[in-house]
Amino acid sequence: MRGVDFAINPLDGVRIAYRSTGSGPAIVLVHGTALSQVIWRGFGYVKELAADHTVITLDLRGHGRSDKPHQESAYRMEFFVADVLAVLDLLRVEHTDYLGYSLGGRVGFSVIDAAPERMRRFISAAGAAGNRLGAFDRVFFPGCVEVLEAAGMDGFINSWQVYSGGPLDRATRAAFAANDAQALAAYMRMAERDTGVPDSRLAGFTTPTLLLVGSEDEERLAAAEHVQAIAPRARLQVISGVTHGELLRHPDTLPAIRAFLAEA
After folding, report:
1. Region for residue 226 given its phi and psi (left: phi exceeds 0; alpha: psi -120 to 50; beta: otherwise)
2. Would you identify the CATH topology of the domain 5-129+199-262?
3. How far apart, in whole angstroms, are the C-alpha atoms of residue 203 and residue 263?
4. How far apart are CA 121 and CA 75, in angstroms?
5. Where are the domains of the chain?
6. Average model confidence (pLDDT) for the chain?
7. What radius of gyration, in Å, describes the C-alpha atoms of the chain?
8. pLDDT tens string 30-52
9. What percent of the chain shows pLDDT beyond 90?
10. Phi-psi region of 231 (alpha: psi -120 to 50; beta: other; left: phi over 0)
11. Is the dihedral of CA 121, 125, 131, 132 positive or negative?
12. For residue 195, is pLDDT > 90?
């Protein structure tokens, strides 16, 4: 990927790779676990949204071309939140829409909790306000963290393809291959201990929120239904027949996002 710039997280000096494209109201796109900002171009989101937005994509720490610390403590949620805010601050973006997939959605809930004044609207695509023990074994395959630590990214990719019964798409495989296995494992171990935003705080969220989730993504669907019942301005939209990994590529997903952004 060409032309990335870097912001510095003020909490610990970690460099965060980002790109900004287009003009108009800002929207920041934040990827999921083991992916990077390249997915937003690969799946057509940047091209579509840059027609009338300033589209900001970034690599969270431990992913893509951002720095990849190996210490588990570097992946506390407060650091992920500061990654996003560091990019927005550097670009002098005071208010933004936010689209987060999976991990990016979970980070988005915490960004709202920490700095609600920065968020205009929030789209959580297969995200959740918190994590549950064993989440990565359920999203990828059982024992995935141990495979990362013992066999690296190649072992992780090969094991996932065997477990899922088919090859990964080109964009996803490229994003995965760019990762540092030890950094990714450190992130996963810390993330499983992250309890997320508590219900008492979700109940005070006033950011207009779209919860997008596939009907076959049972764990994230339950999480989205839970948020919808608590957060006063959260709306749930279920894409029929879609799993966790299929959501961004499904032809109904981007039109649903566009429709939400087009509302007053």
Report:
1. alpha
2. Rossmann fold (3.40.50)
3. 23
4. 25
5. 5-129+199-262
6. 94
7. 17
8. 999 989 999 999 899 999 999 99
9. 83
10. beta
11. positive
12. no
